[in-house]
Automatic annotation (TrEMBL):
Alphabetical list of InterPro entries matching this protein: ATP_PFK (IPR022953), PFKA (IPR050929), Phosphofructokinase_dom (IPR000023), PKF_sf (IPR035966)
Organism: Vitis vinifera
Catalysis: reaction(s): beta-D-fructose 6-phosphate + ATP = beta-D-fructose 1,6-bisphosphate + ADP + H(+)
All residue ranges annotated as the Phosphofructokinase domain in the record: 172-474
Cofactor names: Mg(2+)
Protein name, as recorded: Phosphofructokinase domain-containing protein
GO molecular function, one term: metal ion binding
């Protein structure tokens, strides 16, 4: 391959080298999110430092104290916290084969004890699977200076043997809020199917997000028959929206409708709402289970390897990138720019760039950059045009917001409306090359809505199925009051934002990768 072909021209930077001091412009184009726990040594290498300066490592008990504190932070409210007389009944979720008895079952089905099909309430999922033997190991995330092995566990999702809701008394509702994301229909479908397996008959969809609680829009009765094929198309069967009624109005409406199980599918805003609804229900002593299923196409949630829709987004982005590449390479001095989702994080942009092998410059919110100047994007574009005649840039929507005029405009949910960094780069690039007397042909593609509206791919489809199932199991079982604990974390570069700690996903936790970055921010 030509040394200047895009795949080679694109520099991937290892996290350990990604320090402000060690970085050159060229190597900053593609970078993975930085960790704060590093310092630069004289030789330019980076040393990982221990986090948690508040811990007294001389205390022989520090490790068990740390683990206790970790467990406490992930305590999930239990229905008996509020209703100490709540009675558990055997699960109605049937794990037994319904097929005709074969030889194995000649003496009848095995008892539940022998079946071992349920999740034990004490089961935990290990969050970190890498043992870093030294703080200098690449990517090391150490709690103490010796990089001691400290186990960090979270609860395991799945059906329990005992439940706290009688299926015949359940009035379940599902609501999808915020922006679209591939996989919403898959999750809705699986929630409905699983609820029916538990024996629930009354299931409705609340149309158009939280707005559906206040406005005169009829709720949608849901059953397996209704949802059977909805995963075959993108969007949300129920519709989505931003903004809407107050929390008190939502809870009034839930009381009026008799809803005692609410599934909210949405992002940080939705879960802030879910948490507020939960608190209001608690205040009114309503026995309601509220379960959040995290939806963020940006894949920026603490502890989660992957959120649904992300994989589809990366895959679908390839079409836009390839089009930008073809346009750029077919034009005289062509430059293609693609903007992808990612308000505070560059996961989609980074992975789509890497997967494509067609991107020369990748810009993400985590890494600041200059447009102008000797180490700016524009001078690198000039270099690329001189060397190979064309170039392609991939930029995350939240990157380079400092170049744009702040309007303080917000959407109906109160989110800050970002300026269009893609348009800005396009304009600046055109101006820059025109001024050099050698114009460039700059094409800009924003595929956001085409990506968001896609049907989930196979991998996301499986993830959604697991999330939907586990959400229902949690609503019924051990922790039915609320699953959506909200932990405020801050993205070190941008405004603090809410990350969602949702337990319906935790059985998916395996080899944590990119999102471990956010662990720092608890
Ligand atoms: N702090 C909050 N308290 C209550 N409801 C909220 C809060 N933030 C957002 N919401 C509501 O949650 C819904 C979705 O929020 P939004 O930010 O648009 O999407 P997302 O959940 O994807 O982040 C909206 O209806 C919004 O009004
Ligand atoms: O035009 P809309 O629907 O407000 O959506 C735009 C925003 O939606 C997003 O997809 C984020 O949506 P969420 O808030 O639902 O995660 C961003 O990428 C984008 O800034
Ligand atoms: Mg949001």
């Amino acid at each position: 391959m030509d040394a200047l072909s895009p795949a080679n021209g694109l520099k991937l930077q290892l996290p350990a080298l990604n320090s402000r001091h060690a970085r050159t412009f060229f190597t900053q184009f593609v970078s993975v999110p930085r960790r704060r726990s590093s310092s630069v040594l004289k030789n330019g290498r980076v040393r990982a430092l221990a986090k948690n300066p508040g811990i007294d490592f001389c205390d022989p008990e520090w490790k068990s104290k740390f683990q206790k504190d970790f467990e406490k932070r992930f305590y999930i409210p239990h229905i008996t916290d509020i209703f100490d007389d709540a009675v558990a009944i055997p699960s109605t979720f049937c794990l037994k084969s319904r097929t005709p008895v074969n030889e194995d079952f000649a003496d009848g089905y095995p008892s539940d004890e022998k079946w071992h099909g349920y999740i034990n309430n004490s089961d935990r999922v290990l969050l970190k699977v890498i043992y870093y033997s030294s703080p200098t190991s690449a990517g090391a995330e150490c709690i103490d200076p010796d990089c001691t092995w400290v186990e960090q566990w979270v609860h395991r999702a799945g059906p329990r043997e005992k439940i706290y809701f009688k299926p015949e008394t359940v009035n379940a509702a599902i609501v999808t809020c915020g922006g679209l994301c591939p996989g919403l229909n898959d999750v809705i479908r699986q929630i409905v199917i699983t609820l029916e397996i538990y024996g629930v008959k009354n299931i409705v969809g609340i149309p158009f997000g939280y707005r559906g609680f206040s406005e005169e829009i009829a709720e949608m009765p849901l059953s397996r028959k209704v949802v059977q094929n909805i995963h075959l198309s993108g969007g949300s069967l129920l519709g989505v929206s931003r903004g809407g009624p107050s929390v008190a109005e939502i809870v009034d409406s839930m009381e009026k409708r008799g809803i005692n199980m609410l599934f909210v599918l949405g992002g940080n805003g939705t879960h802030a709402g879910a948490n507020a609804i939960h608190n209001e229900c608690r205040k009114r002593r309503m026995k309601v289970a509220i379960v959040g299923v995290p939806k963020t196409i940006d894949n920026d949630i603490l502890h989660m390897d992957k959120t649904f829709g992300f994989d589809t987004a990366v895959e679908e982005s390839q079409r836009a990138i390839n089009s930008a590449y073809i346009e750029a390479h077919s034009a005289y001095r062509g430059i293609g720019i693609v903007k992808l989702m990612g308000r505070s994080s560059g996961f989609i942009t980074m992975q789509a760039s890497l997967a494509s092998g067609q991107i020369d410059i990748c810009l993400i919110p985590e890494v600041p950059f200059h447009l102008h100047g000797p180490h700016g994007v524009l001078s690198h574009l000039k270099y690329l045009l001189e060397k190979k005649g064309s170039a392609v840039v991939c930029v995350a929507e939240g990157a380079g917001q400092n170049f744009l005029e702040k309007t303080n405009a917000t959407d109906a949910s109160g989110n800050i409306v970002f300026g269009d960094i893609g348009v800005h780069i396009q304009q600046e690039t055109k101006k820059y090359f025109k001024a050099t007397g050698n114009p460039a042909d700059v094409k800009y593609i924003d595929p956001t809505y085409m990506i968001r509206a896609c049907r989930a791919n196979a991998s996301d489809g499986i993830l959604c199925t697991v999330l939907g199932q586990n959400a229902v199991s949690f609503s019924f079982l051990h922790f039915p009051t609320i699953i959506s604990n909200i932990i405020i974390i801050s993205n070190f570069r941008y405004d603090p934002f809410l990350a969602i700690h949702i337990f319906s996903q935790l059985m998916m936790v395996g080899l944590s990768s990119t999102n471990q970055y956010f662990l720092d921010k608890i």
